[in-house]
Design brief:
Blueprint: H1 3-30, H2 33-59, H3 67-83, H4 89-111, H5 116-136, H6 138-141, E1 147-148, H7 168-195, H8 198-208, H9 210-215, H10 220-246, E2 248-249, H11 256-269, H12 276-294, H13 298-312, H14 316-332
Antiparallel strand pairs: 1-2
Helix pairs in contact: 1-7, 2-7, 2-10, 2-11, 2-12, 3-4, 3-5, 3-10, 4-5, 4-10, 8-10, 11-12, 11-14, 12-13
Length: about 325
């Protein structure tokens, strides 16, 4: 690809991203508060899926334990607000991400020594260790009752925005949406830079041919470990942002089915594309919400719908859309 073509591609990506952000910024003004809450959940899960896909899509490692980092971020927020009496969301983010980084570094150091199914089983086993700790040490974690994190006790932007007084919930919904949207934009930009940097290209080389990557001088294990930590931090950030909106942290978010949901978001959207996990997370969030609202057998309904989607769109939503666009482009020539 020539320099001119690369520059054109970057400009097109920038313009498209700015347009999407403008649309997302306008949406709360035209939809009801419930839809705004769903959009916020979708953006949070998109950050988690972006982090996960750095391992699956770019490094070729399938993790079944990313609920550990999502849950770690969530519980750290709960501990910071309950035990330290902190109310600043920025302090919660910094503390939560540092704690998640430590956990991801330890788990990653163990896991990246292995690949394929061995890597997946190790990540699953380690995440279940955290789930067991959260479940058994109920005097610390609250057990199945969880830990409440009331939105009214938190402040944004260093205390400039609080949620006390009348109409606090309505103000929280809209203020927190834009707060999450801003962090989503920053996270997406950082991940795009990582994915398109020499480090990201090295990860793709490891994914495509580990032996050849090692022969050209890439330290495979070190690169995987760094990618694992970055992936964990992003998923931990999603868990941190999820807590104030949910209002409660329980061991359920550490359990293995939640890891499966994060995997499915990336697969549904298309893990071979950068935007696939974002689209997949938003789509999965809406599918699950409306399935729960439709029937008490929502797991069955959701499973059937997801199986049909995967069979109909084997490359994911974004991947299939790109293939159709390429076919249309060739047919018009």
């Amino acid at each position: 690809m020539t320099m001119a073509a690369t520059g054109t591609s970057i400009w097109r990506t920038t313009i498209d991203s700015a347009l999407v952000l403008v649309i997302l910024a306008i949406l709360p003004q035209v939809v009801d508060p419930y839809q705004t809450v769903l959009l916020t959940y979708g953006l949070i899960m998109a950050i988690a899926a972006l982090g996960f896909n750095l391992l699956l899509g770019y490094t070729g490692l399938l993790s079944f334990g990313h609920s550990a980092y999502f849950g770690a971020g969530a519980y750290l927020v709960a501990f910071i607000t309950r035990d330290l009496g902190a109310h600043s969301m920025e302090l919660c983010i910094v503390g939560g991400m540092l704690g998640t980084l430590i956990i991801a570094a330890i788990f990653g150091f163990v896991c990246v020594r292995h690949t394929r199914i061995f890597f997946g089983i190790l990540t699953l086993a380690l995440s279940q260790v955290l789930w067991s700790l959260a479940f058994k040490f109920f005097w610390v974690t609250g057990g199945t009752d969880g830990i409440r994190v009331p939105y009214a006790s938190l402040t944004l932007l260093g205390g400039l925005v609080d949620f006390k007084g009348g109409g606090s919930f309505q103000r929280f919904i809209y203020a927190y949406y834009y707060y999450v949207l801003a962090l989503f934009a920053v996270s997406t930009t950082i991940m795009w830079v990582i994915a398109h940097s020499p480090f990201g290209k090295a990860l793709q080389a490891i994914r495509d041919n580990e032996t050849r990557a090692r022969f050209v001088g890439i330290s495979v294990r070190r690169y995987r470990w760094i990618a694992f930590m970055i992936s964990g931090i992003f998923t931990g950030l999603a868990g941190i942002l999820w807590v104030p909106l949910n209002g409660l942290t329980t061991p359920d978010i550490l359990y293995w089915p939640f890891s499966g949901e994060i995997v499915f978001m990336s697969v549904l959207g298309g893990f071979r594309s950068f935007t696939g996990p974002i689209v997949g997370a938003m789509a999965f969030n809406y599918l699950k919400t409306y399935a729960i609202a439709s029937t008490e057998y929502w797991q069955l309904l959701l499973g059937v719908v997801l199986v049909i989607l995967v069979m109909a769109l084997p490359a994911g939503i974004v991947g299939t859309a790109a293939q159709l666009a390429a076919k249309r482009g060739r047919s018009t020539k």
